[in-house]
Amino acid sequence: MKWMRWMVVGFGMIGSVWAAPQAVPEAEQQQWIKHLLPLPHEIAIAKSVTLKPADIGIVIRNDAGPVQVQILADLTALFQERAGQMPTGTTFQIILGVLDEKGQVEGRAVADAAHLKSCPNSAQAYLIRPDGDTRLVVAALNEKGLYYGAQTLRQLLAAKLTRDSIIIPLAVVTDWPDMEERGVWNSPFEAIPWMAALKLNHQTYVCGQTPGTNQIPVPRIDRVKLDMLRQYAMVICARMLYHLNYFDKYYGLYKFYPELKGQGEKAVCAGELFKFAKRDIPVICASQPQWRIIVADMLKEMAAQGAREVTVWLSEFEGQCQCAECLKSTQVQLESKLVTEAWQEARKKYPDLMLRIFFSQGDASPATVQALADLPPEIKIERVYSIYKPFLDAAAQGRWVLSFSGAVIGNSDQRFKISEALVKPITNGYTAKLKGVLSLCGPYLGNGLIPPNYYPIVLDYPLSALAEWSWNVNGRTVRQFNAAWATRHGFNDPALFAEWTEVISALNPGMLGTPSKKDFKNQFRVTADKIKHRQSLSCFSTQELTIALGQCWSALAIAEKLNQLEPAVETRYFLACVQMQAKLAALSDLIVKSDVTQPSGRQQVKEAWDALRTAMDAVLAAKGRQIDLWKAKPADFTKKVQEEIRGQWLEIQKAMDEAIAGLLKTMPVNVMQ
Q1: Nearest partner of 458 among 618, 637, 202, judged by Cα
Q2: Could you tell me the end-to-end alpha-carbon distance of the chain, in angstroms, rounded to an integer?
Q3: What is the pLDDT of residues 417-444, one digit of tens each?
């Protein structure tokens, strides 16, 4: 085994400021540990040593794989950014490596190496141990664990690294993830480096496609993307395009195979929400043999291009094909059966191909129990939307089950809130022996999604929280997490920041946000229709609004004591939203009760409508100040998205204007005169 030392030959001890290790008081240890997200399971920093950055050298294998190459890049980038130089010294060595069969790294025994094999999710576990006073060793059973150890090391070093000095903790760390898979689904590839630094390891990779015969798409695997997943220690799994019932919407499959479409009204999910989102798409006719051929051919094609694990997504949402053959069974049983048989066919040629089935079908019924029981034990189970009892029972019985039913992440209106909706699914999933609880990443703003380069700004807090509880379920309280996050982000009073988040987290999220006709649940989507029918526009009582206003003023008093602008700007936006809701409630009361046949009644409605428009202008201005704090590329995104948000309000305002004008004209002619 060959090792390379990133150091300058002959540098030696010249210019070093070597000092003997010093004891680290308990209070200082705890402060240092606040720089770590997520919190390691076991950590102690009894001693530290102070040196010049030029004294530090990184030692790693010279035939290192892509993960170790990335580790080296991460650590050298840290030194270049903070100290303005490469870590090429010889006075103190940081050694990183995968343990050999003797429990050694670079021929040196690592204390407690044997313990790693007994850690949960041991393939991702790692150790950090001092080797005397001049070396620090990061070791793991494989490269994934080593990557996570390097991320902890990077955070520890960053806490006390400047151009002039570095204080190195002689830390003793033993750590592992509680959840095997952690992160979000439907996030962009560009965000991987940032998310991987938080020890998140799940990224949805959807294979590409080229048109094939009779509109059957031919999967295309992007090896560059697979290599990127490997480089950042991510789960390497390729999704076979989309849900099976979307193959006609995206590829026109039913033009040549109309029999593959689910039959009958019950094949389509019911409900206005699905129609609004244009997701009222029939499930497939899973009893058609052609589906097995199509899926098997696609799996073989993906395996031939290097995919070793594939996930196949069943039809999205509830539905049941009403053809005579399908009615002999159930949708969930038939679809999981056809995918299983297609995989078994593909394995005849590619025996190492692994399969996951993404269950967007299934519920609490005996049919779902049977569908899961019929799966070969090697097939992994992924479940989206509600995690019904059959899936929990399967996990309890030892099946590999991953939930995609965590909290949705992406709300830019209340970014600094940790709700029960985020933490509880993870803690419950851990207790239920799920392999992970993933969150949907849907950061919509304006007319589209937030660009990837804005993720570290807009989504840093919620994704850090997701990383925290997915890695160490019982490590920190919400308040402790908030203090740690604030410490990492340079707040002058982390405890005060934690107090602020508690106050703003108590706000009703329904009171916050800008008007949009694109969001099915947005209260302003139907206000014009309600005005026409003289129905209530408000969702909140006077008492609720009074309480919310008090919460906003309390939060603002706290935020203005902090050394960073963002909490105060966020709070003023919340305050503007609640004040707008109060104006909406006032208008609502008049819409329902006012006698618009009288001039005084019409005047009251007009004045209340003018007051609401003024309050909404204040909301948009406050939202703009929030967005203006975001600095990333493309730089014009912040201006563009503010224009889109205002455009959505103007569209709604026009409809409300017309509805109110119509209301004020619904009176006898003699009154109008």
Answers
A1: 637
A2: 97
A3: 887 889 999 999 999 999 999 999 988 9
- Residues paired with 88 in a beta bridge: 57
Q: Which two tokens stand for residue 86?
A: 């490469």
Instruction: Please give the structure tokens belonging to residue 655.
Output: 């409809």
Q: What's the distance, CA 156 to chain centroid? A: 24
Residue spans of beta strands (DSSP E) within 360-400:
380-383
CA pair distance 622, 577, nearest whole angstrom: 9
Phi, psi (rounded to 5 degrees) for 508? -70, 115
**Is the distance from CB of 219 to CB of 302 less than 8 angstroms?**
yes
Domains of the chain and CATH, by start? 3-175 (3.30.379.10), 177-195+411-475 (no CATH), 207-405 (no CATH), 506-672 (no CATH)
- Rounded to whole angstroms, the Cα distance separating 153 from 172 reads 11
Nearest to 445 by CA among 351, 381, 516: 516
Residue type, 293: I
Helices (DSSP H) in 459-536: which residue ranges? 460-471, 478-488, 494-505, 527-532
Q: 562-593 as b/e, with b when 16 or more CB fall inside 10 Å? A: beeebbbbbbbbbbbbbbbbbbbbbbbbbbee
| Band of residue 604 on the pLDDT scale cut at 50, 70, 90 | very high
Q: What is the pLDDT of residues 215-273, one digit of tens each?
A: 899 999 999 999 999 999 999 999 999 999 999 999 999 999 999 999 999 999 888 87
The span from the CA of 138 to the CA of 128, in Å, is 5
Q: How far apart are CA 78 and CA 41, in angstroms?
A: 24
> Is the separation of the CB atoms in 261 and 254 below 8 Å?
yes
- List CB contacts of 543: < 8 A, sequence separation 6 or more: none
Strand partners, 480: none
Radius of gyration from C-alpha coordinates of the chain: 29
β-partners of residue 357 are 312, 381
pTM given for the model: 0.94
- CA–CA dist 38, 476 (Å, integer): 9
d(C-alpha 381, C-alpha 150), whole Å: 31
Question: Among 613, 611, 606, 610, which Cα is nearest to 591's?
Answer: 606
- For residue 73, give every residue at least 6 positions away whose Cβ sits within 8 Å of its Cβ, in sequence order, or none: none
Euclidean distance between CA atoms 606 and 598, whole angstroms: 13
531 burial via Cβ count (<10 Å: 0-12, 13-18, 19+): buried
Residues in the chain: 673
Q: Which two tokens stand for residue 593?
A: 């009760």
Rounded Cα distance, 100 and 103, in Å: 5
d(CA 555, CA 346): 59
Tokens representing residue 285 in the block = 């006719």
Strand partners, 105: 108
CA distance 634 to 453: 8
Q: Are 157 and 78 in contact (CB under 8 A)?
A: yes
